[in-house]
Structure formats: C-alpha cells, structure tokens
Amino acid sequence: MGRWNGYNGRSGRMPPPRRWDLGPEPETEYDIRTELRRVVCGARLQLLAKQSADGYWQGELEGDGILQSETILVLAFFGKERSPLAEALAKRLLDMQLPEGGWSLYPGGRAEISASVKAYFALKLTGHDPASEPLQRAREMILSLGGAERVNSFTRFYLAMLGQIPYSLCPAVPPELLLLPSWSPVHLHALSAWSRTMVVPLSVIWAKKPVRPLPGELGIRELILHPPEQWPPIRKPGETVRHGFGWGTFFRGIDRLYKAAERRGLLPGRQRALRAAQEWMLRRIDAGDGLGAIYPPIVWSLIALDALGVSPDDPAVRKTWRQLERLVIEDERGTRVQPCLSPVWDTAISLRALYAAGVDGNCAAVRKAVAWLIDKQITVSGDWAETVPAEPGGWCFEHRNDFYPDCDDTAMVLMALHGFVNGTCNEQFPRPFALIDEQAVRSQVGRPRPGTAEEEDLLGRATGAIHRGLNWLLAMQNDDGGWAAFDRNNCRRFLCHVPFADHNAMIDPSAPDLTGRVLEALGTLGRRLGCPEVDRAVRYLRRSQEPDGSWFGRWGVNYVYGTWQALTGLRAVGVPEDDPAVQAGAEWLITHQHADGGWGESPDTYDHPERRGRGPATPSQTAWAVMGLIAAGKQSHRAVLHGVRFLLARWSAEEGWNEPYFTGTGFPRVFYLRYHMYALYFPMMALAKFAASAQHDPPPFRPLVRVITPADSSRQNLRTA
Q1: Which residues, 6 or more positions from 88, have their beta carbon under 8 angstroms from its beta carbon?
Q2: pLDDT > 50? residue 266
Q3: pLDDT tens, position by position, 517-549
Q4: Full DSSP string of 251-320
Q5: pLDDT over 60 (residue 112)
Q6: Calpha distance 128→119 (Å, rounded)
Q7: Which residues, at least 6 apart from 437, have a Cβ–Cβ distance to it below 8 Å?
Q8: Packing angle between helix 559-572 and helix 580-591, nearest 10 degrees?
Q9: pLDDT greater than 50 at residue 396
Q10: CB-based burial of residue 83 (10 Å sphere; 0-12 exposed, 13-18 middle, 19+ buried)?
C-alpha cells in the first residue's frame, strides 16, 4: 500500500495536463453518435424486456462446478444421489470438466483440488464408472495435485459426512462459540456475517458428527495417497509454511486441545450450546430465504437440523429445501445451481442504467421497480445491531434476508431511488414509448404517470426510504474511514488463522471498491468534501491506493473494478480531477487498456497481483474502465473512445453483449461469479454516460484537444504522459 503525493507515484508538482479530443473526422463522429444512439436504445429494450411482472430484475448468478457437486453430495447424504436432479447436475459437471481432467474455479482457470475431488466423488455417486475416460482423467489430475488430503476444510466435512475420512481430520468448529460474550477476543459476532451463517451449522455438524455410510465401490479411496495421521494441516489459499510460533500455530494447538477435551467429555456447556445454535438458525431461516439466503449455509443447515433430530416435516426444514430448489435452474443450457439470487442488486443497477439511457419516472417500468425496492427496505434489526446502535434502514442482496442488509446494496439502492425522486434522466435519448411496440410491452412501459395523489405517495415513500437508508449507511462507517459489506469494525485479523478459516473471508474489513461506491452515493445525495464522513472515507481511499495507482477490488474482478469505483467515489464528493490520486488511478486504467480497446482482468490476479489488468477483455470490465476514466475527467481521451468502440462493435441486437467470463468475486482465491446481467446494464450505462459527457462536456470536466506523436499511430494503448 502506498500514499500518493505526486503524479504517477512521483512526489512534487503536477505536470501540465496533456489535452486530447476524440480526433475523428466529422463524418466519423456522426457515425459514432448514431451508433451510440442505436446501441443504447437497443440495449434499453433488452433490459426492459427482462423485468419481471413484480417489477424487479434478476439475472442468473453463475458459479463454478462446486455448486453442482456439493448439491449432489448433500443429496447423497439424504440417500438421493440417484434422483433426477442429481443425475442432471452430474451431466453439467461433465460439461464443465477441463480437458486436462480437473475442475477450475472460473473459466480459464487451472484445476483446483477441492473442486476436482468433489466433482469426482459426485460423479461416482451418480453412477459414473471410475474406469470411464472422464473419471480417469480426473483421477490423474487429482493425484498430480497431491490427492484428496490437499482439500480445504469444507470439503473435508463433506468427505467425513459420507464416511470417507474420520471427523478428526476436520478442523474443530466449537458450538460453544455461541456462548462466548461479546467482550471476548473470540466470539461469534467477531466473524464476518457469511462466516457466522456457515460456522453455526458446521458447529452442530462437528458436535453431532453425522455419517451416511456408503458402499466401498462408491467411495474415493483411490484419491487418498496417505493414511489419516499423515494428512497435512489445513492452510488458506496462498499461505506458506512458516516455522516458529504464530497465530496459525497457536490456533492449531487450540484445535488439538479442544479435540482432546471433547474426547474426555470435558465440555459441560455442549448441550446448551447446541440449543443456542438451533435457535439461532431457526430465527434466521424464518427471517430470510433460508439461512443467510446463500447456498453454503442453506445446505449446511439442512444437515445440521437433521443431526439435531428436527423432523423433515418441520416448517423450517421444508422451507430450507424449497429455498435450495429455488436456486436450481433448468433450461436448454442444462441444470445448474446458483449460489444465491440477486434481485435487489440487479434492480438498483438496472434503474440507474435506464436513467442514464433516457428513461425517467414517467415510465411505468421505473415506477414499478422503485415501489418494489421501497418494499424491500429492511426495517428490523439484524446481526449488525450487535455493534451498531442505529435505526435499521438498509437493503439486502436477495429477496429476503432480514438479518443481513449490506452497505453495497444499500448504497446502490439509494442512488437508484434518488434518481427517481430527483427526476434524473439523460435527455439525449428518445423516450422508450417512442421506440417500443406498445402491443408487446403495454403492461410495462409507456404509460403516463398516475394521478397526483399516487405520484406524491410514491415520491414521499422514496424520500423516507432514502432518509432511513442514508442514516443506517452512515452509522456503518468503520473507524478507519472505509465501509465493509455487512458489519462495522469487523477486522480482527488474527481470526483469519483459525483452522476453518481457509475460505479466505473470516472477517469483513473496509474495502476500497465498496468505500468508493458509498462515496458515490453520498456525493449523489449532496455530501461533499468538508463533511466529516466524506473526509474520513477520502483519507481511507488515499491510504489504500496501490503504489501503481490502482485500487484493490474485493467484490469485483479486480483492480479494474476497484479503480473504477474509487475514482467514481472520489470525484462524486468533489475531489478534483487534477488530484494526484485521481490522475494516478486514471493513468493506471489507460496503461492497462488492451490493444483491441477493451479492458480485461482474470481472477488469478488475487493470487498473482503482479498480473493485474491482464486477462481476456470483457464488456463489463471495459464499461467499468470507461466510466472510471469519464469520472476522472478523461472523457475526451482516445483510450475512452477506443473503449466505446470496443463496446459498440460487440453488441448484438439479438443477444446483447456476450461475456462468458467471471468478473464478480465471492471470496478471493476461493469463489468467483458470473453476473449474467453485468454484460448488459454496465456497458449500456457506460455508453450512455459517454454520450452525455461528449455531448455536453459539463463542468468540472474541461474540454480537451488532441496531441499527436509519431508513436500514437503505432499503438492503441495510449498514455497521457
């Protein structure tokens, strides 16, 4: 990490800015503007057509093969490994297998040991012959990676539940954690929100140690190279073996002591802890779309409740099975499982993209979406209230997850609602009812606004929701000035060394990308430099800027995402475009543009930061970079024009933009995502913002003129200095 006190990492005065324009001939410029209008309006039609009848948008959220394999393993625990669903998921697994035999965490990634072991096991359970060519290739790859003993802690639990290894090879997950007071250095609420929802059911599974024995021929003994006593300790991705004493050594010692005490029956609070765990899970299942409304705790809670003796007919169990079924997609592309649903996120961004593309509150689609978002505001306290004395008012990611609103969704929804209240609309583009066949979409768009009373009611409700959401969001600011996703000051880094922390997200500290988005929301709502919360957040972003000028992206891949959001947030609150941090971030984006005009970055940059900015160019990442440069005052830079041309050239009136790569992040180094709507609303938003900036060139953006050098004609990756 480094703090910038000069342009491009050098201290001292700023050099005089180079000045650029778009450079095309008048005829070419006319063609670009015409193409912009055609593509933005066409993309707008595609987006409006995807709106649900209830008013929200929800694109598919795609993960890697572990979602299919773990579902099969859970079904196998309940004796359903040969069910139609399990067999359909196995077919999907075969389709996802790499040519070299394993399974990766994202398209273009290398084979990963835990994903590969679970996929192999799932295929055997669904009747695939281990002598078949796909399983032979998989077995060879797994053995070359070190065998089943190299899998992570969560995978070990699956193997133990299905009788392949003893539970002693899993890290202990003490249910007594629920009984520790909040003043203790280690307690449940010191963990990140997503870790809590996984740890509580896992603690029940650890205590009860349920096993479904399997016939020997269905096991995976052929993947195990060493006896249990020779299995290595569990380590986080990227963690190296260190000699001497450290937190990892300390917690592994605690793990051994705890297991010894358990064997001797020296845990008198066990039954009380299990009752607390059951009550904890049931409350959150009742208040959401399953425990945590995300895949891992949903499936773990099914096993935990069964281990506790809860009847399969219990309402909580039946609801959890229904929520798992809601995550399954079956269509012509096959059967697959989503990690969760993303309606609030997709709806808020879709609204912002529509505003940028010329749609305002006169459109019935907008009004319906706004009303839906207002109804989704969470007005009850959740886990966050353990450390934050504030009135509730945030939004969650999913349809319902009352205990877990998050700052990212709340910031995005606040901007979407403000756009409605403020009448934000790009006037360059014709209204949608002038472009759409009213017979086809009469129920969604083109209707006049309702009467005054209804209009005032919706505006009043939106204004009240913004007020509550803003107060909650401000209360969630961390002491370091940044924002995290679900909690405040959740940053006890020593907890990242407990043996079951290898999902690489045990805590929830401030993130530059999320802080940038909150700043963007605060700027949208009128907060500027001089506001204490804004000043603290700006200082955080200055501290967290990388030495090369980029920012890390926790929730999107990766430095392109983080740099876009940091630049947008800084500029939204009044940081000038000639500020060294802004100039350095823009320079980083410019120098990492690909020769084809796009931007792309692979998830492997989380393992190899030196590869930042490298990867196949994608529409969503190109859109982020274009918007980041526009925010930094570079809307007339040739790099922006090349990025715009990249997006224009890759749009299809039939399919929109095609993006097969994963540009979303769940857990860095562990789990990545493909948001299917990212390739629609982000490019559409970027093109609309470019059209607005090129048309009006409003303050504080300065009009620029082009400087041509001989080198310019030989490369498309242009620098401003």
Answers
A1: 330, 334, 335
A2: yes
A3: 999 999 999 999 999 999 999 999 999 999 999
A4: HHHHHHHHHHHHHTT--TTHHHHHHHHHHHHHHHHHTBTSGGGSHHHHHHHHHHHHHTT--TTSHHHHHH
A5: yes
A6: 11
A7: none
A8: 150
A9: yes
A10: middle
Whether the Cβ atoms of residue 102 and residue 116 lie closer than 8 Å to each other? yes
Neighbours of 284 (CB within 10 A): 25
How are beta strands 328-331 and 334-337 bridged, if at all?
antiparallel
Cα 144 to chain center, whole Å? 31
Q: What is the DSSP string of 592-644?
A: T--TTS-B---GGGGT-GGGTT-S--BHHHHHHHHHHHHHTT-TTSHHHHHHH
Chain CA centroid to CA 261, Å = 39
User: Which residues, 6 or more positions from 27, have their beta carbon under 8 angstroms from its beta carbon?
Assistant: none
Q: Cα–Cα–Cα angle for 607, 610, 612, nearest 5°? A: 85
Q: What pLDDT is attached to residue 427? A: 62
Give strand pairing partners of 111.
104
Task: State which amino acid sits at residue 597.
Answer: G
Q: Is the pLDDT of residue 289 over 70?
A: yes
The CA distance from 351 to 369, in Å, is: 8
Instruction: Give whole-number Cα distances, 408 to 29, 112, 521, in Å.
Output: 37, 30, 10
Looking at residue 17, what DSSP letter applies? Answer: P
The radius of gyration of the chain from alpha carbons, rounded to an integer in Å, stands at: 26
Q: Report yes or no: 125 and 73 within 8 Å, Cβ to Cβ.
A: yes
Residue bearing tokens 């079956």: 330
Q: Specify the pLDDT at position 352.
A: 97
Q: What is the mean pLDDT of residues 258-281?
A: 95
Report the distance separating Cα 79 and Cα 288, nearest Å.
27
pTM of the model: 0.89
Q: How many residues does the chain have?
A: 721
CA of 458: how far to CAs of 380, 396, 476, 528, 592, in Å? 22, 21, 27, 28, 44
Q: The tokens of 212 are what?
A: 């479904």
325-357 pLDDT, tens digit per residue, is 999 999 999 999 999 999 999 999 999 999 999
Show which residues are catalytic: 408
CA distance 128 to 216: 15
Query: Does residue 436 surpass a pLDDT of 50?
Result: no
